[in-house]
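Final report, closing paragraph on structural work. Over the funding period we assembled a curated collection of sequence-structure pairs, and we close with a single example.
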Amino acid sequence: MFAERLKEARRSKKYSQTELSRLLGVTQQAVGKWETGRSTPDPQTVAHLAEILGTTADALLGLRETAMPGAVGRDAFEGYEESLIPVVGTVRAGYGALAFEEDYGKEYASVKDPQNYFYLVVKGDSMEPRISDGDLALVRRQTTLDNGDLGVMVYGLDGEGTLKKYIQRGNAVVLHPFNPAYEDLVIKGEELDHLYIAGKVVETKAKW
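Its predicted structure, as stored:
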């Protein structure tokens, strides 16, 4: 989660919370709350944090998996052979299974088990400023997500896949957009039966 990645990155640069807060222009208490998960900084502050800590905002937010502690931002898949991964434009749910539509060809990725991955072309601006319309998201196929993961979900039998942050809140699931102009989608009760998880986003690429 973000709190752990921030603490890891700070320690790798040998900064104390006080030193980091001074560089960032915030209180030490604010940094402490971020590292314990009690609060989360806004996107502009995340970008500033990344600059100070010599990493990327995507790495801090978990949009790129990291190889090891102290190597924040390094490609987690370094060392694997590049494989061609299918690029799709739409993920839909129907007849109890997920369908991947709109074939955009293939794109290379260095992953261990390429058959379990697909690229999705991001549509819309709900995840800006972190992820933009037309960007590519590398998705590992899986049917569950941990709290705070960035995932591709389909809501409703005829719904189209959406890329959002997955948040578990009590007995409800919140699909959270990064763009403050968009509202959270809260799904609870029987509505959860119509939420399908297509996979976890492990990396994003700028417009191709």
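The chain has five helices and nine strands. The radius of gyration is 18 Å. We thank the funder for supporting this effort.
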